[in-house]
Description:
alpha+beta; D-Maltodextrin-Binding Protein, domain 2; 2 domains; 7-stranded mixed β-sheet; 3-stranded antiparallel β-sheet; 27% strand; binds magnesium ion; magnesium
Amino acid sequence: MENVISRELLDRVIAISVQAGEAILEVYNASGELEVDTKSDDSPVTAADLAAHRILLPALEQLIEGVPVLSEEGKLPPFEVRSQWNRYWIIDPLDGTKEFIRRNGEFTVNVALIENGEPVLGVVHVPVLDITYAGARSLGAIKRDAGGEKTIGVRAMQPRLDSSQPIEVVASRSHGAGAVDELLARIEGSLGETGLKNMGSSLKLCLVAEGAADLYPRLALTCEWDTAAAQAVVEAAGGIVVDEQFALLRYNQKDALLNPFFYVIGDPSYDWKSLLLG
Ligand SMILES: Nc1ncnc2c1ncn2[C@@H]1O[C@H](COP(=O)(O)O)[C@@H](OP(=O)(O)O)[C@H]1O
Ligand SMILES: [Mg+2]
């Protein structure tokens, strides 16, 4: 496969994601009651999810000729078809729909490029904060906000542990709280006091990528479009996303789009395996 990854491609994906974010904000900021439908899997969907999907889909289809787009809000091709794809876009036009409905700002636009099952480029845009995280193999990871753009990277565990600073954990607001509490009790048994922040959406992986958190344990279900873009950012920033066997999370390997439970780890040189699996 010829290389398609470039800073120019990343910038174009950022621009498309920001545009989708603007469409989401139009719905978010409109007066009147927000209409919420329920999809066949019982998850909520709004006009904002669909508006973002309608911007992302044609824009990405034009970006690299012949590369298909798999969207949470689009048609899902059967696995016999998808399994032939060695390169495709996977998008979650609005991740954190529950938080969108709660109006707490914790929702994101997610676009990832997958090659041979691995997330190689990703953009996570946070419309309310007007912050964009982006990263790609060989390009590193960046964060853009009103102040401009900077390179981001994960933070090392050792100086924190040496100076007895608590490690910081991020976790969902809505899913898997019981299992995370048990895990935290175990971590605190080894390392002492631990900080915990709860929030919605793929923003949690980005906090690990930028070195604001050390660990995101996801001990609840997600789908591949929820994690692909942010995993690309985490990996470009020096971190890893692993399942409960500590194997890197992979895409398009099976019929169901559900991910296994996983851990997002900032500093892979630390012995997380012993700490988490005990
Ligand atoms: N039972 C389930 N099966 C699959 N995915 C689930 C799920 N429960 C929650 N999720 C996913 O978790 C995401 C929210 O995670 P968080 O709690 O960290 O914000 C949702 O994203 P959407 O908002 O895009 O639907 C949804 O895709
Ligand atoms: Mg989602």
